């Protein structure tokens, strides 16, 4: 009797613990989803390709969403919505890689081939063949990550949207799956690891055994940093350091414009008069109102210049005996 009572109490305590960790479903509006994607894009700016969102980032995003939309979202709910958006981008990336599919860049939707439809669930087909909301934001957020480590999974079970539902009514996520939310701060949110029913691509129960999740996490952790990329960065840095510094810029000497009256000044300088008389003549001819006379004497013969010099000194009250 005592053992049975203790066993019953343990079962009740375990059920209460499971129910406390299970959170309510929330319905994500288009405005909230767009705000969340833009928030993550702003955080990823200027970050390296190996950057991954952690638990604290989802908590900060939840605070921002609650402050703006009063969603009452928790860190786990934001984390799951982020993963579901990345899961959908995995569908898009897989459809893009198939040359038999057509893509309308205006409406952002696919025309899937029959062979592609056979490998996808009805949920994925409905999502890809209708206009994909926030396509540009999804591409900007996940394109670098998918190229960096290929961690996007083409799994159709993360977002359990009913097959006959309309995607234009907002994204309502079924959050019944238990994500590893109680792990350390270094949990990588870009690697989708969950405890969900074993299903194949069509959403049907699968009899195949799933590989150990621990080994998958190790592989993804090893693929985060590529030794080839590190070696290439070291070679590039060494090459930049070995290059000689660029030569200093050559100073450009300004060209002094030629003096149109240089010939006149030379002829005055050759006159057999004192330096004081030469400066007096030059000062007089350099006045703005003597422009016509200056141009005339510049073209006149030496005899005319001599006569003008004698006349000039007679007018100023002096005399020159040089001529």
UniProtKB/TrEMBL annotation:
Biased segments, Basic residues type: 206-222
Region (Disordered): 177-225
Domain of life: Eukaryota
Compositionally biased intervals (Basic and acidic residues): 191-205
Protein name: Myb/SANT-like domain-containing protein
Species classification: Eukaryota, Viridiplantae, Streptophyta, Embryophyta, Tracheophyta
